[in-house]
Structure formats: structure tokens, C-alpha cells
Specification:
By secondary structure, the protein is an alpha/beta fold. It has twelve helices and nine strands. Helix 3 packs parallel to helix 4 and helix 7 (176-204) crosses helix 11 (266-280).
């Protein structure tokens, strides 16, 4: 994070779900003037304690300098920016307009391009800025962004990315950030399934999950991701960071891109079907790391929590 004073910029924030709430809170803690809209107002209300103003519609944020969006998916993204058929006004649909629009939602290139065209027509700088991490990663200040759009817009927005997390990787113009994020989340699914398989293999051979994962995390194969997922896998703590439905959506986007670009993706395709099986078995309002449970069942292994304290590498 940089030491620049950010308080003079008026920021609008759309979307106060698990991720959006934590990200908006980081900006408020950095001293930013933030107004927040969320479709379910009650979810945004706790941000008032940090100094936020709560808006009643996306259109109320149109006079802000920068508007961030972090919503559920492409339909919501288009509705809050361009307006919907029910008559609700989007942040780009009125006479007042922000100087910059930054979208952090994982959406398709097509949805992003639709909003980008509308923003450019209205003279609003638009950045696609999807993220890597979950709400706990946000709170620890380790969230990372991948960003595409006009370079001068990115340079102006960089201090705000740095206020939220560790900074941002600029990958070029247009929608390039979207394909990078899709590739990232395809890898997330494939790696998590592989992690489930090898962890169950080690456990069935007699190795405690905590011991196996401690070795893995200290080896060349360990990663920030394997480390912060270790407490969930050891103690079977499946509070939601990312649902199987959201992972399936991103795998579908990745496979669609693969078909479009003639890139075979056999591992991603198999992982997509395993995630579908996870959903079909009723693992919906839970974390995608329940892939471990599905793998254990297929292997004849009954998992029990080890109930030990494990470092997630985020503190």
C-alpha cells in the first residue's frame, strides 16, 4: 500500500457481498469517501460504522469520481451499469456520469465488452479488474488484481488497488484481464481437485492430513493457495469462500474460451464434471473445497476433523 492521501476522491461501490463488503471496508479504512449500493440494503448497512454512505440505487453513485462494481455475475453487472428492464437506473444510464468505472466481477468477455463500449461512448474510463483471493485474503491486505483497459486509466486507479490489496498487474487493453481471470479460476478448480485426490491418497495410506499438507506447503509444490486452504482441509471447515456453483460458472467460461480458440482442455473438462457431481450431491451452500469430501467418499474414506490449529499463512 502507498502512503498517498486518497480522501479527496469520492468513490462509489456497488455490491456488498462477502468480497465487495471486505473490499469497500479496506477503502474506508484507508480514509476514502465511499458511498455503497447493494441490492439488499441490510448487507451494506454495517459499513456505515466505518464511515460509508448507503445509496438506494446505482444511479445515486453516478456523480462519484470512481465507481467500483463487485456483483454476482454478468446480468447483475449489466443491470447496475446500464440499467435493467424493470426501470432501475444504472450508473451509466443517466445524465451524471463517473469519471471512471472499475469492474471486479468475474464476467464473460462479451458482457464486459458491452459495458466497455457504453462507457467509452459516454467518455467514462473503464477498467476490467477481476481479483484473486477471497474475503479473508482481502482482510489480510493480500488481494491481487489483474487489470485491462486504457493505460492512463489504470495509472490513475493504481493507488486505489494498492489501498485494497497488494496491487495490480496490468495486462493490456480491452478485455484481456477477463481471460486471465478465467484461466486463473480454471486452474483453481483443477488444483483443488488434485489437492483433494493426493490428500485422500495420503490419508488412506495412514498419513494425517495435517502432516501431509505441512510437508506439501514447505516443499517446492506449496503455494499461498495450498497454505491458506490447509486449515479447511485439516479441520473440515467448509464455511463459504467460493461456492461450487461459482466455480462451475468459471470452468464453463474457460471451456467456452477453449472451444473458441481451439485449445483442448481435457483436465479442465473432467474437473468441471466433478464439480457438477459435487453440486448434484447437494454440496451447494458450502465451499468448493468440499471436493475433498466427494473424493473421500469415492475412495471409501470417512473424514473426521483433526481439530488442531493450523497456520493459513495470511496473518
Amino acid at each position: 500500500m502507498i502512503s498517498q492521501d486518497l480522501s479527496s476522491t469520492r468513490i462509489g461501490w456497488i455490491g456488498a457481498g462477502r468480497m465487495g463488503f471486505a473490499m469497500a471496508a479496506r477503502l474506508l479504512e484507508a480514509g476514502c469517501d465511499v458511498a455503497v449500493y447493494n441490492r439488499t440494503r441490510a448487507r451494506a448497512e454495517p459499513l456505515k460504522a466505518l464511515g460509508a454512505t448507503i445509496a438506494d440505487s446505482p444511479a445515486e453513485l453516478a456523480d462519484r469520481d470512481i465507481v467500483f462494481t463487485m456483483v454476482a455475475g454478468p446480468d447483475d453487472f449489466i443491470n447496475v451499469t446500464l440499467g435493467d428492464s424493470g426501470g432501475a437506473s444504472g450508473v451509466l444510464s443517466g445524465d451524471r456520469l463517473p469519471k471512471m468505472l472499475i469492474d471486479c466481477t468475474s464476467v464473460s468477455e462479451e458482457a464486459s465488452a458491452t459495458v466497455r463500449a457504453a462507457a467509452e461512448e459516454r467518455g467514462v474510463g473503464f477498467l476490467a479488474a477481476p481479483v484473486s483471493g477471497n474475503a479473508k485474503v482481502v482482510k489480510s491486505g493480500k488481494l491481487s488484481f489483474v487489470v485491462s483497459g486504457p493505460k492512463e486509466t489504470f495509472d490513475a486507479a493504481l493507488p486505489y488497488f494498492e489501498a485494497i490489496g497488494t496491487g495490480a498487474s496490468y495486462v493490456g487493453e480491452g478485455e484481456l484481464a477477463r481471460i486471465v481471470k478465467i484461466c486463473h479460476n480454471v486452474l483453481l478448480g483443477v488444483v483443488t481437485q488434485s489437492l483433494a485426490e493426493i490428500t485422500v491418497l495420503a490419508e488412506k495410506a495412514g498419513v494425517p492430513r495435517s502432516a501431509f499438507l505441512a510437508f506439501l506447503n514447505d516443499s517446492v509444490m506449496g503455494s499461498v493457495f495450498s497454505r491458506y486452504k490447509t486449515p479447511a482441509l485439516v479441520n473440515l471447515d467448509y464455511h463459504v469462500t467460493f461456492t461450487p456453483q461459482l466455480l462451475r460458472k468459471d470452468l464453463d467460461l474457460g471451456l467456452s474460451a477453449g472451444r473458441k480458440l481451439d485449445v483442448p482442455m481435457p483436465l479442465a473438462a473432467q474437473t468441471r464434471e466433478i464439480v457438477q457431481s459435487l453440486i448434484g450431491n447437494g454440496f451447494t451452500d458450502t465451499d468448493f473445497s468440499q471436493l475433498l469430501t466427494l473424493q473421500a467418499r469415492a475412495s471409501g474414506v470417512e473424514l473426521t476433523p483433526e481439530n488442531i490449529e493450523v497456520d493459513d499463512g495470511l496473518s
